Amino acid sequence: MKRIYLFLVTLLLTLNATSAEPEELEHTSFALLLDVRQILLDYYHLQADETNHSVLKRLAASKQQAAISTKTFSEQLPAQFISQRNNLMEHWQSFDQLMQGNIDELINSGYPEGQLVLMMREAGKAVEADLIELNQLIRQQYEISIPEKISALRQQRMALLDTIELYGEYSATSTGVPIRSGRPDIASYCERFEAALSNLEKLQWSAETQQLLKSIRSKWRFIDRTVKRHSEGMVPFLVMRYTDIILTNLDQAQASL
Question: Any residues with CB less than 8 A from the CB of 191 and at least 6 apart, and which?
C-alpha cells in the first residue's frame, strides 16, 4: 500500500527547511508515528513469509523513507524541543539498526532471533513515545486544535494498528518470540476499534465517504472474527491485506475533507 501523504509532507519540509509551520510539524509528527507502526507491521508480515519479496521491498522502502522523514522533521523542530529531538534521533537510530538486524536474520536464517525481536519492539515503542510527546507538546505550545473528523480518523487508525500489532505478536509466538508481558486479550482491542468505528459512522460524511466506511466495516468483520480466533490458526497474509485496505480507505476519507 502506498502511503504518499508522509512523502509529500517530508518533501515540503525539505524544500522549505527553515519555515515549517506549527500545523505542518503537528501533522508530520503524527504521520511519522503511523509510519513507524506500519514498519513494525510490515516486519511481522515478512516474519510470517520471509520469501515474500514484495513485502521485503516495501519494508525496505518504508524504513528508508522514515529515516529521511525523521531527520527532516527533527531539523524543523524549534529550539525549545531540543531535548525531545535528541531523544527521538537516538531512539530512531536504535530502532532502525535493530530492525535491519532482524530483517537480515530472517533473510539469512529464515527464522527470527527472539531477543533481537524483543529489543526491536522496545526501541520502536520508544520512538512512538517520543513522537506522541512531541505531537502533544506542539499542539499545546501553538494551541493547535484538531478538527473532529480528523481526530476521529486518527483514533480509528490507531485502534486498528493496536489490534493488528498485537495479532502480529501472537503470530510471532509460533516462531518462539514471546508475546508482550501480561498477554493482553485481543478481544478488548477489537472492542476499541468497534467503538471508534461506530463513532466515525455517526459523523456527517459525503456519500463517497460513506461508501468508504461501508468498505471498512466489511473488511473489519473478517479481521475481527479472525484475530479473535488466533489460537485456532493464523492467517497473517489476509489480515495484513485487509488492514492495508482499511488504512487506504481512511486515507481517502481524510483526503476528501
Answer: none
